[in-house]
Amino acid sequence: MRERNTTKKGIDDAKELANSYFELIKVRGIKKTASVFTKVSYNLLNTILLKMGISFFGFALALYLGSLLESYPLGFLIVGAIPFLAILLMRIFNRQTLQALLNFFTRIMTKDHE
Fold this sequence. Notes:
Layout: H1 2-69, H2 72-92, H3 94-110
């Protein structure tokens, strides 16, 4: 009888330990997910603000170039060509860009926060 109670107690302890490990894994997962979402939202906000700043800078540059060239449409055409050149460069260096982004997100996901 005593042996059966000891075995049952050991099984109950093992179940409790397993449940504790599952809870720990769940908490770590929630912490990692919250960290990733926080960083993504922070970077999204930075990106939006940067795009706004670049837009105003581009508008001012287009007006300045237009006044220098005495043709506002030509100034806007030159400034408008800059994003197309950036896209062209990204297409040329596609593999390196993708690898850099993959490394960045992998580093975020595997970083230890303990």
